[in-house]
Design goal:
Helices cover 10% and strands 30% of the residues. The chain is mostly beta strands and 161 residues long. β3 and β4 form a beta hairpin. The longest helix is centred in the N-terminal third of the chain and has 9 residues. The protein is rod-shaped and about 100 Å long. The termini are far apart.
């Protein structure tokens, strides 16, 4: 059995490229799994990232994110710079207040959701103008349509007379 050792310097110090190379990830999957975060470092301080599931189908990309207890009006979905999908939430979750005076919580274990900011660089075949979103039962579902593949170039044989 051969042993493969990856030197991060072999890929210009880019861990995402090294992992993508080792596991032979397709380019589109690698972009979703390892989005560029260098420009987000200062922007994300104090903001949580929530887990996401991304499904690649033949006609679209589907994102699933859990937002328990958050109203759909508190979630904002935008596309920036023509290829960056951005999901933001103010993190407000309504707590049930005691209706009568003198009521108080004895235990608070359910954390209030923090502010959420997630950014995803969309692949070149994603149609940024065809994004739909719905939020049901605390699950945000985003559907990003795919552009049709470019037409294959035709080769026409010309006879020389």
């Amino acid at each position: 059995m051969s042993r493969v050792v990856a030197d991060s310097n072999a890929f210009g110090g880019d861990l995402a490229s090294a992992v993508g190379h080792l596991f032979n990830f397709p380019g589109s999957v690698e972009k979703f799994m390892f989005p560029s975060r260098a420009h987000q470092a200062n922007e994300n301080s104090g903001i949580s990232g929530i887990p996401v599931d991304i499904l690649d189908t033949p006609k679209e990309y589907i994102f699933y994110m859990d937002f328990p207890g958050v109203s759909k009006s508190d979630i904002q979905v935008t596309v920036e710079d023509e290829n960056t999908l951005v999901i933001r939430s103010g993190g407000k979750r309504k707590r049930e207040d005691g209706e009568e005076e003198g009521c108080k919580y004895l235990r608070l274990e359910r954390r209030a959701t923090q502010k959420v900011l997630r950014k995803f660089r969309l692949p070149e075949n994603a149609n940024a103008s065809a994004v739909t979103a719905k939020c049901e039962n605390g699950v945000l579902t985003l559907v990003v349509g795919k552009l049709p593949p470019p037409a294959k170039a035709k080769t026409v044989e010309v006879t020389i007379s």
